Every structure is written in structure tokens, then in C-alpha cells.
């Protein structure tokens, strides 16, 4: 049949042109070509997703954020029990007791924490009871040892108790159905204790982010090693930023790329991608001729380099690197700049990865103890000490604005945020601060 023999028409295969992947459009810079700190931070936050949660042992979830609401399936305590070592009684049987005329009750038995079957309390008698032991049927109060002669066959009671006294009733701590923890809440020792007490051994939480901190710069030498050539310095950032990431709850590796050679830096960074949920580099992102991070990263992923209207911390880089699009924050190299940038950008990103709210620092108000000066047109982060002054939060700057002053940074416990339009703050005026040790 002719029809069947007809040659099949070959559909031309349309060449699929993959669009060159790019990052979403960054926020518009202002007339000076600068981005605000908030706009940059929010842009970066839009580029990362929380890490997927998994079920884990209660203790392994310490410091992590829960991904579920957990309601109690039990009452706590689960049964009425004694709050004291003493005697379980009917309050009515000891109502008339006093120091001058003690009442004597026969002791029908004894019960300790963990004992299971109990005889009911016979009328007009007492049962010796230890803290945490179930209250025998018929008893409604406990007379502590201290109010008795501690007798074994019979007991003299010197003080009355009222019904319910020294009894911890079923459900008086937690009732069944009570939400013990909410999603997004971070597990601490107390909440772990609460869940354990309610019989819960596994929770759904987001894991600790795996963070690699890479310090770059040909001048860097590891602390503990001798500076051999003039111009060398010890690597402060690698340690500082690694510690800051640990303080946020991350699992951290520190790597040093003591080079400004693009080949070396590219290889060092590529080697780290496999084990990282986030990579942080320091150095090599400003305007210098050896700003190697800025040079090589666009070959390895989608990058954004910006100038942010803040001081310190103006040059900032971000990328989604490699096939897995691992987020990478490229911090400037001056130690104070790198630390301030960590607080402004990395901390929120880590908290988003961990699913912890709020992601951003919540500024607190403090009263300037002395005059503060700032450059107009930039958000200035002053290193400062906040202290309590008779219930008032008082803040003073430590040292100058230069971003190499690690001594002052170490002495600070807060950053004062002096906004773009602030030139001077007089003593007694209010300023907003980020507390660094919370
Ligand atoms: P960069 O951003 O690489 O141009 O570095 C700016 C300044 O920070 C230079 O003075 C560097 O020597 C210094 N610096 C860079 N990385 C570190 C580091 N890991 N530790 C201490 N200082 C650093
Ligand atoms: Mg450098």
C-alpha cells in the first residue's frame, strides 16, 4: 500500500538553546552605585532555602530548630505522687494534730518511687511514702517526715496537713495534648528535658549547616607558625569567622588558601564544595589588582559582586557555586569588615538554612554615653560596649572606625548602627545596637 510506503516526514529537530543561567536581578543600586545593607541582605536571603529536615535522636537535636509542633501524648506527672518523704494519710485523720498533743497512727506499710502495686490506705492509718511514689488509694495528703517522729510501726504526727498538701497531682505539670514545642523553636537543655520527660526520643529538625571557611591572601600564615618574610601576617579571619559560624550552631571546617594565584584559589575552593552547605571566603573581593576571589568565582558559578553603603564592609560577593549551586559568601579581608559582614549577611543566611526565626538581628535601643560621629551616606557599624546603668542600657564606642582594629573589636560586645543620615549622636540620645553575645 502506497500510503504505508510513503517516506516519513522528518521533523526538523529544534535546537534547544539553554538560557545562560544567571542570578535573579539584584536590587537597583542608588545614584552612587551603592546598595543598602537591608536590600543586599534580603536579596541574599532570597537565594537560599532552609536545609531539608530529618528525624534524629533527641540529644542530637540540641541547638537545632524543630520542624514540627510536638504535642504531649501524656499527662505529667502521669499519676498522683508524693512531693516529700513522709506518710500518706487522709488529711481528716490528722486534722487535730499539734505539737502539744500529737496524734498517733498505725503504719500500714511503705511505698517508694518505682513501686507498682499498692494496698489502699486503711481508715485511720498511715503509709510511709518516699518522694515520687504513687499516692495509695484512699490517701489525699502527705505528712512530711519533719512533722513526725519518723516511726515505723506507728507514727506520731505533730502538725496537720490539708487535703492535697504535698501531693503532686496527675497532669499538674503538663496535660495531655499540650503543645510542648512549636516548629521553628530551637532545642535547648530545658526543652530536651521536657520532651524526654514526656517520653519522646526522636524529633524532626533541620541539621547543623556544614560550613567551610576559606581565608585567602598570599600574606597569610597560620597562627602558631613563624612569620618568615616581611609583609606576612597571621590569619585572623579564618579562625574568627569559623568561631562565629560555630557560635551560630554550624559544623565548621577552616581552610587557608594562602595565595593570590587564581589557579591555586580556584582549586582550593572547588575541593571544598562537596562537603559544604555554605562556603565563606574572606579577602580578595575589593578593587585591588590581586583580588583573586572576585576574579575566579564567576568561572565557577553564578556570582553577584556589590558595593554596599555600609562601613566597614563595603565590598561584598555572593555566589551559587558549582553544579550543586552551593551558596558562597565572599567577605572582605579586613578583619573588622569581615566580622561585621558576617553579622549583617552570613548570620541571617545561616539562620535561614537552619530554619531559625528571626533570621535578622533584632536591634536593641541604648543611650549613648558619649559623643558618636559617623560618615553621612553610609550605615556605620561602630564597635561598642553596652552596659547596664541602673536599668538603663548605656553604650559607648570602643576605638576608631578603621577596620584593622581587632583589639577594639575583641573588647566590644555590640555594634552600634549609625544610619545613613547620622553625622553625630550626642550623649543621652538613643541609638540602635546589635548585641553580639546573645
Ligand atoms: P583584601 O580584602 O584581601 O584586600 O584584604 C584587606 C586587608 O585585610 C589586607 O590588609 C589583608 O592583609 C587583610 N586580611 C586579609 N585576610 C586576612 C586574614 N585572614 N586575617 C587577617 N587579615 C587579613
Ligand atoms: Mg587579599
Distance between the termini: 85 Å
**What is the number of helices?**
8
Query: How many strand segments?
Result: 27
Q: Overall mean pLDDT score?
A: 94
Give the overall shape, derived from the CA principal axes.
Answer: elongated
Q: What portion of the residues fall into strands of 2 or more residues?
A: 25-35%
The largest beta-sheet arranges its strands as 15-12-16-20-19-17
Oligomeric state of the chains present here: single chain
Q: Which regions are unreliable across 5 or more consecutive residues at pLDDT < 50? A: none
Q: How much helicity do the residues have?
A: 10-25%
Rg from alpha-carbon coordinates: 33 Å
The main sheet comes to: 6 strands, mixed
* Helix and strand composition category: alpha/beta
Q: Could you tell me which ligands this complex binds, including any ions or cofactors?
A: adenosine monophosphate, magnesium ion
Structural summary, described in words:
By secondary structure, this protein is an alpha/beta fold. Helix content is 18%, strand content 28%. It contains eight helices and 27 strands. It has helices at 2-5, 37-45, 189-197, 237-247, 262-272, 292-300, 335-354, 406-411, and strands at residues 54-57, 70-71, 81-82, 86-89, 103-111, 126-129, 141-144, 154-157, 167-168, 179-181, 202-205, 210-216, 220-221, 233-234, 251-257, 278-282, 301-307, 310-311, 315-321, 326-331, 364-368, 372-373, 379-389, 392-397, 414-418, 424-425, 430-435. Strands 15-12-16-20-19-17 form a six-stranded mixed beta sheet, sandwiched between helices. It has a five-stranded mixed beta sheet with strand order 7-4-6-5-8, with no helix packed on it. Strand 19 and strand 20 form a beta hairpin. Helix 2 packs parallel to helix 7, helix 4 runs parallel beside helix 7 (335-354) and helix 5 (262-272) packs across helix 6 (292-300). The longest helix is centred in the C-terminal third of the chain and has 20 residues, at 335-354. It is elongated. The N and C termini lie far apart (85 Å). The site of adenosine monophosphate has 18 residues, from helix 4.
